[in-house]
Specification:
Length: 250
C-alpha cells in the first residue's frame, strides 16, 4: 500500500519576534498537527524547512527527532529524471509532505511536477489548507475575481517585457480578466515602472507586498496615478520584499 502525498502550506514569511503567534494565525492547527506527524518531506530547501519544523514543534511536538526526519530537495535545478526517486518513500508506504518555501506547494512552485507523477503512480494526493499569496492579492485588489490568469515572471529585457505587458493588457481588456504577475523582489521597482509606462493610463494596477505579515501593503491605483507617484519618487516600500502585481484594463 502506498503512502499519501500531503501538500503542506508554509507561511508567506516569519517575523523574527512573532514565530509562534504568526504561525498560529496563518496555518490551521489541524494542518500543523498533521505536519508534525510526518517523517519524510520533499522541499525546495532542506535548511529552511528544518527551521519551519522547529517553529511548528513549539506547539506540536514532532513525531521524529530532527535528525531522524528525512528531507529531500526539489527545486528548479532538480533534473526531471530525479523525480522518480523522490517517490520511493511513498511507494514504500510512507506518508510524505511536499512543502514550499512560502505559501502553497505546486502553485508557482516546482512541486507540481512531483504531484503529477504521483497521480501517474496512483498515489493519493491530499492538499492542505494554507495561505496563497496569489489569491490573497486577488482578494485584496478589488479587481475582477471571476476571471483571472497568473503568468509568473515576465521577460527581464525591457523591450520584451513592455511588449508582453501590452499583450496581456489587450487580453485583459477583451476578456475583462485580471492579470497576475510576480517578480524577483529586487526588481520590483523596475516591474512597477514598466507596468505604469506600458499600460493605458486608466488601467488599474495593484501592488501587494508582504501579504499576511505586519508589514503587509496592498495598493490599487491607475497606471497614471502610479506613474505620477513614481515621478515624485513616492513608490511603495517593496524593495526586496515578496510582491504580487495585478492589473485590469478598464
Amino acid at each position: 500500500m502506498t503512502g499519501t502525498l500531503f501538500l503542506i502550506p508554509n507561511t508567506l514569511g516569519l517575523n523574527n519576534d512573532q514565530h509562534s503567534s504568526l504561525l498560529a494565525s496563518i496555518i490551521p492547527d489541524t494542518v500543523q498537527a498533521m505536519t508534525s506527524q510526518l517523517s519524510h518531506f520533499v522541499a525546495e530547501n532542506a535548511k529552511t524547512t528544518r527551521a519551519y519544523l522547529k517553529y511548528l514543534s513549539q506547539v506540536h511536538p514532532l513525531q521524529k527527532t530532527m535528525q531522524e526526519i528525512q528531507i529531500a530537495e526539489l527545486n528548479i535545478n532538480t533534473p526531471a529524471q530525479a523525480l522518480e526517486g523522490l517517490l520511493h518513500p511513498l511507494l514504500q508506504g510512507h506518508d510524505v509532505g511536499l512543502i514550499s518555501e512560502a505559501g502553497v506547494p505546486a502553485v508557482a512552485d516546482p512541486g507540481a511536477n512531483l504531484v503529477r507523477l504521483a497521480h501517474q503512480h496512483g498515489i493519493k494526493v491530499r492538499p492542505l489548507v494554507g495561505p496563497s499569496s496569489l489569491l490573497l492579492a486577488l482578494m485584496g485588489s478589488g479587481l475582477n475575481g471571476q476571471s483571472f490568469a497568473f503568468h509568473g515572471y515576465l521577460p527581464t529585457d525591457a523591450t520584451a517585457r513592455a511588449k508582453r505587458i501590452r499583450e496581456l493588457e489587450e487580453r485583459s481588456k477583451k476578456e475583462k480578466q485580471t492579470q497576475l504577475l510576480i517578480e524577483t523582489p529586487y526588481r520590483n521597482a523596475a516591474m512597477l515602472e514598466a507596468l505604469s509606462n506600458s499600460c493605458q493610463p486608466s488601467t488599474l494596477i495593484c501592488v501587494s507586498t508582504d501579504l499576511s505579515l505586519d508589514s503587509e501593503s496592498i495598493q490599487t491605483k491607475t497606471a497614471a496615478e502610479w506613474k505620477a507617484q513614481l515621478n515624485k519618487q513616492q513608490g511603495p516600500d517593496f524593495h526586496k520584499k515578496p510582491t504580487v502585481f495585478l492589473f485590469l484594463s478598464t
